[in-house]
Amino acid sequence: MGTMNRALVLMYHLVDAPRSSQEHRFCTPPSEFARQMDHLAREYTPVSLAQLLCCVSVDRSWPERPVHVTFDDGFLGVLEHAAPVLVQRSIPATLFAVSDRLGRSNDWMTGRGFPERPLMSAAQLRELESAGFTIGSHTRTHARLTEVDGDRLLDEVSTSKSRLEDALGTEVAYFAYPYGLLNDTVREAVIGAGYRAACSTVPGFNRVGEDRFRVRRIDIFGSDRLWQFRQKLRFGRNDSSRLFALRYYAARLGARFGPN
Question: Is the predicted pLDDT of residue 103 greater than 90, yes or no?
Answer without folding.
Answer: yes
